[in-house]
Specification:
The structure holds two protein chains of two kinds. By secondary structure, chain A is of the alpha+beta class. Chain A starts with 9 loop residues before the first helix and ends in a 6-residue tail after the last helix. In chain A, about 55% of the residues lie in helices and about 15% in strands. In chain B, helix 4 crosses helix 6. In chain B, strand 1 and strand 2 form a beta hairpin. Chain B is rod-shaped and about 110 Å long. Classes of the chains: A alpha+beta, B mainly alpha. The interface between A and B is medium-sized, with 23 and 18 residues.
Chain lengths: ~80, ~140
């Protein structure tokens, strides 16, 4: 899915891990499509039709969780 | 060499982010499933279930109004009102004036043109009568 997308530059990764706002925004933007895909849920209406919709609640929770985890627990492992 | 190191960090970061998002998504899905299992929309409730959630206002339903010397006195409680209603008028007036309007024996005596001691005596006798009446009618004393 994210195969063809350009990877995030290393300085941005390190800045994000240190809590830099712009860097975190860039990371969130980078994963936005993936997040939306994860937050997409089927919705049935009263006639039995199924729609796909992005659960905004879930999308925001995923974003928050991502930011939180990057800041609190991402560590670069040495080779 | 620098390139591979850079790529390693990028890979680590990518894997980390995907793992975090996937786990959180699974967690949220599970939460939704749990909620679906335990919660029920209001529309799906049967009439009797819906009734359990209702409350009714009971204002004024057990209030009884007596009149003493032209003054309205409100008594709350069916049994108590009945007990007071069966008293003769003179005794009833004393009880209502002293306990429901908060007058002192002297004030009552002035109002009814009787000696104060008469009021006091009448009050005590009436209280006893009331007590007997209530006991007979099966009144339950509240637990202390």
């Amino acid at each position: 899915m994210a195969g063809q997308v350009k990877p995030i530059p290393v300085p941005v990764i390190l800045a994000a891990a240190n809590g830099d706002e712009d860097a975190l925004a860039a990371v969130v933007a980078h994963y936005q499509n993936y997040i939306r895909a994860l937050a997409t849920r089927p919705l049935k209406d009263e006639y039995g039709n199924t729609y796909l919709y992005v659960d905004e609640d879930m999308r925001l929770r995923l974003e928050t969780k991502l930011i939180h985890s990057i800041v609190t627990s991402f560590k670069v492992l040495s080779a | 060499m620098k390139d591979s190191n850079e790529q390693r960090i990028q890979n680590q970061f990518g894997a980390f982010c995907v793992k975090v998002l996937k786990n959180e998504a699974r967690c949220i899905q599970r939460e939704y499933a749990r909620r679906r299992e335990q919660e029920k929309p209001l529309d799906d409730l049967t009439a009797s279930e819906l009734e359990q959630t209702a409350t009714w206002d009971k204002y004024f339903m057990d209030e009884h109004v007596f009149e003493v010397q032209g003054l309205p006195v409100v008594v709350t409680g069916d049994l108590l009102a009945e007990a007071i209603a069966q008293l003769p008028e003179g005794k009833r007036d004393v009880i209502l004036l002293s306990y429901f309007l908060g007058m002192s024996d002297r004030e009552i005596s002035e109002r009814l043109n009787v000696v104060r001691q008469t009021i006091s005596k009448r009050r005590l006798v009436t209280l006893k009568e009331l007590r007997e009446y209530l006991m007979k009618e099966g009144f339950e004393w509240p637990d202390k």
